[in-house]
Amino acid sequence: MRQLYGGELQQRHLVGENSAIGAARRDSQRLAMSLMLDETMVGSVGVVVTELATNLLRHAGGGELLLQAIPTPAGNSLEVLAIDRGPGMDNVEKCLRDGYSSAGSAGTGLGAVRRLSAEFDIHSVRGHGTAVMARVGGHTHRACGAVCRAKDGETECGDAWRLAAEDDQYCALLVVDGLGHGSSAAVAADSATRAFSREPRDAPHLQIEHAHQALVGTRGAAVACAAFNRGGDALAYAGIGNVSGRLIGAGGDHGLVSHNGTLGVHMRRVQEFRYPAVAGDLLIMHSDGLSTHWDLDDHDGLRYRHPAVIAATLYRDHTRGRDDATVVVVPL
Fold first, then answer.
1. pLDDT surpasses 80 at 100
2. Is 184 exposed, middle or buried (0-12, 13-18, 19+ CB in 10 A)?
């Protein structure tokens, strides 16, 4: 069975005052209802968002919440990412225990969030901040994690991504960065992802050619595609433009090669590369809305967190702030 991830732009809520907590709760529950989550799950979403938003304000002085739909074999799940640059936690497990509080509250916030979530993870480093992921609904088995958001002031995003996963074995990931930002860039990104969604089993170099044809008449885009079989020993990759790819594992941190060009406008001959890859490696791809100067080893223990927490932390610490930004993390 094929599962396709990626699509709708994440909802973003900046939490800097008390009124933002209620707004985030109401929007999250509307989104949960639109995803056909049952009444109990809609209620759980409201509690999760309220607790995480309250923690952002109370313990970190503010932060942001990102909401998005995550498809699962049993139906949709709603993912909540809470991200801050606050003081962080000395002892995460202690903070998760009911009855513990560092701010004089009942101390049940994070414990309640974990209980109500089908998937939950957290990464916090003292002096650097915290990223929390909670998914209410079905379980996705750590298939991927992603942040994809528009440049500040824009309502449409010129970045996009799609992950096709078949029978938990074959996976193909496409990341698109439409030239510039705004509605014209969004049209380009949508054209490329539609082409991928029609034939996700085609090899990466063919995906680049499909995207090039689909992008003719648009402003063009940078596109990269990776494909692998879980349990296999190699990853195939092809890219044109400034989408970055990294393969991280026991053998080190390897950059994945893309060539210069703009699909839909100018493309040289596409070259597909193969890289040794084994179970446990991480594939990370991102648009140029993120700096390339990051190293997972600089984030204590992040390498072993849920892919969504990895994506959220890289987004928080390495977003350039002047463009759309996308980062996708997929475990092999």
1. no
2. middle
Q: How many angstroms separate the CA atoms of 177 and 13, rounded?
A: 23
CA distance 328 to 163: 9
Listed as own residue / partner, the contacts of 93-96 with beta carbons closer than 8 Å and 24 or more positions apart are 96/122
Which of 188, 262, 176 is closest to 225 using CA atoms? Answer: 176
Least confident range of 35-44, 128-137, 159-168, 220-229: 159-168
Write down the domain spans for the chain.
Answer: 2-137, 145-331
C-alpha count within 13 angstroms, C-beta hemisphere, residue 83: 22
User: Is domain 145-331 classified as CATH 3.60.40.10?
Assistant: yes
* Residue 44 to residue 48: CA distance in whole angstroms: 6
User: Which is nearest to 43 in space by CA: 95, 115, 116?
Assistant: 116
Query: 1 pLDDT band (50/70/90 cuts)?
Result: low
Q: What are the tokens at 42?
A: 């809609």
Q: Tokens standing for 312? A: 């959220």
pLDDT digits (tens, 9 = 90+) for 30-86: 999 999 999 999 999 999 999 999 999 998 999 999 999 998 777 789 999 999 999
Average pLDDT over residues 311-320: 96
Per-residue CA distances from 286 to 190, 221, 241 (Å)? 17, 14, 12
pLDDT at 99: 47
Report how far residue 51's alpha carbon sits from residue 68's, in angstroms, rounded to the nearest whole number: 17
Q: How far apart are the first and last CA of the chain?
A: 18
Is the backbone of residue 46 left (phi > 0), alpha (psi -120 to 50) or beta? alpha
Q: Does domain 2-137 have CATH number 3.40.830.10?
A: no
Q: Which residue type, as a one-letter code, is found at position 29?
A: Q
CA distances from 28 to 42, 250, 322 (A): 8, 38, 27
